[in-house]
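[agent] plan:
  1. take the single chain provided in the ticket
  2. run structure prediction with default settings
  3. attach structure tokens to the ticket
  4. add a short note for the reviewer (M.T.)
[agent] executing step 1
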Amino acid sequence: MFKSDTSTSHTVRADRDAVSSVKFSQELTAAVDVWAEVHQTSRSEAIRQLVELGLKAAPAHRAGGNHDFLAIEALAVRQITALLDPQLEPDERERRISRLVYGPPEFSDERIDLPKHEK
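[agent] step 2 finished; step 3 output follows
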């Protein structure tokens, strides 16, 4: 039995796992085949397992987009400000807050949440 969603062009089977078709480069196909052979499984099972591993490793997308990140950043700034010595010069206060919230500049290339800049 098929269930069809009129808002999309795909069909979902209610009683079986969905079958998907993907197009890979020859290099990627070869890499998947090697992984499948090492793990003694089929290509389709290897692809399923690799996708599951990737989804577990990737940070989940949170609803609300940048608003969540902005709220977290604002909370961090408030907490850091409360802990800083009130006698600090304003420039030093801003430098410390920035360094704690955004990390030291020497590690900015390692951040996965920031866009990469061409060198």
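[agent] step 4 note for reviewer: Confidence is low (pLDDT under 50) at residues 1-10.
[agent] ticket updated
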